[in-house]
Amino acid sequence: MIALVSPNMNSSSFLLTGFSGLEQQYPWISVPFSTIYAVVLLGNCLVLYVIWTEPSLHQPMFYFLAMLAITDLCMGLSTVNTVQGILLGLIQEISLDSCITQAYFIHGLSFMESSVLLTMAFDRYIAICNPLRYSSILTNSRITKIGLTILGRSFFFIIPPIIHLKYFHYCRPHILSHSFCLHQDLLRLACSDIRFNSYYALMLVICTLLLDAVLILFSYVLILKSVLAIASREEQRKSFQTCISHICAVLVFYIPIISLTMVHRFGKHLSPVVHVLMGNIYTLFPPLMNPIIYSVKIHQIHSRILRLFSLKIC
Q1: For 240-277, how does the pLDDT look when each residue is reduced to its tens digit (9 = 90+)?
Q2: How far apart are CA 263 and CA 266, in angstroms?
Q3: By the 8 A CB rule, do 106 and 154 touch?
Q4: CB–CB of 197/100 below 8 Å?
Q5: TM spans, by residue (predicted)?
Q6: pTM of the full predicted structure?
């Protein structure tokens, strides 16, 4: 380890952290990770293909699902090169520019997933609480504007703190806590004044992830109130059924984020392996689980996938 952090190490590069102490098992560990990345790629591409080729799925709900699948696909692609590179022995360090770029996309995609989940909650609210105006409210042009707003909200406002990372002086050992780059990880290594980045990042989290979570919760309070007002229990059950997949997606997204935050805040005494594992769960669990959830829970997607595979077998 001394050699790895010696002065001879390139001052503009950072050492990526794998599963410390398990280096001999990396070839075996790479197998489940390769499988996970393959499922992320194939699962989300399959969802996108089904929505693209099935005219009956050209509806607002499925357009938002396509946005979620694209976000998950990009999140998986944003970390595969460093995570698999470490496990396969191809790379050990990453340049500052590449690190900043990776951090930009990881955080931008996290904000984008949160925004899409909020939009999907709004979609469910309109569909259940105001069904007669559903098609007039969520028109194609409005959906396009929502998509562009999500992109701008996710990737524009994070530019200032990300650019600042380029001009910091990194005097501490250039060892990252994860197999990929995060904004807070680079701040930990900087010796410059990081107050702007710290406060700005906190405000971003409050105004995006936290605000989105509160609005999603509020939308489900309104949905629950509306559903309980329905006299028929069968209609109540059907209304709740349309929300189950979205609720699962919300939990799959927010639980890893909360867990990683808790580990960073209170788990400094924990093994580095725990930090690396939680980091990988944060980036891989939602992209892995979302296509499975929606393929199982949404009848239109489920039946179309079964029909697609039955045609392939025939």
Answers
A1: 888 899 999 999 999 999 998 888 777 778 888 888 89
A2: 5
A3: no
A4: no
A5: 29-52, 64-91, 103-122, 143-163, 199-223, 244-267, 273-294
A6: 0.91
